[in-house]
Amino acid sequence: MTSRRRSEFSTLYRGREGQWSWIAHRVTGVGILLFLFAHIVDTALVGWGPDAYNRVVSVYHHPIVQIMELGLVGAVIYHALNGIRIMIIDFWPSATEHQARLFWATMLLFAGSMAPITWIMGRRIIEDLFG
Amino acid sequence: MAVDTEPRREADAGRRPRAGFELWAWLFMRLSGILLLFLAVGHVLIMHVFDEGVARVDFDFVVDRWSSPFWRTWDWMLLSLALLHGVNGTRVIVQDYVRRPGARLAWNWSFAIVGFSLFVLGSVIVFTFDPAQFL
Fold this sequence. Notes:
The structure holds two protein chains of two kinds.
Chain A: H1 16-44, H2 50-57, H3 63-91, H4 99-130
Helix pairs in contact in A: 1-3, 3-4
Chain B: H1 21-49, H2 59-65, H3 69-97, H4 101-128
């Protein structure tokens, strides 16, 4: 690995399941927070009456925004399920011995919940585009 | 997390670390996380998946929903816990990637100020929204 080393603080560390779940937790967390910032502002527009609010939420009815919306729902579900995995490992240290299996169980739950959600939300997007 | 720590000595093994701000922040992330499992996942399912999803959301939908103190409380708890959980998350990330103390302080204060301002804005709207003024 020494040949791949770039600096003391940036090395190619192949952490496998643990590292991938950690990166995904960060990316989804930051993504959700940035959306939350925007979402508080758009919701606050209800205080300026129906014209202002209805105009801003009509953005969410656009098909491209609906695809991003599906990504947002996926990010929240992943962050929630992976958060449960983190808490299991934190509070029951012996769970570290099964960390890889816990990761795959989390992914299975994620895929299992996203399948129907993608079906429900995806059908709406397709109907909006071609229906 | 790349928190600067002393190397763990053999004598420290099994001893509990001293309670401090970081321990409370760690505990807060778990407790708020458990609450957000219900508040945030519930919110996302109700608003984006069930019924017609976000297509049914408009001014009248909000008037109807916020006629109940239950949903106002739900939304306010979601607002405050998600902001605190998220802003504390950025603090951990800044600690990992920003190494200059001045830049760290600037990033942390930026997220804290944006978070606090949005908390004030959101709280005012959730608690003072009165549709009667638009009739």
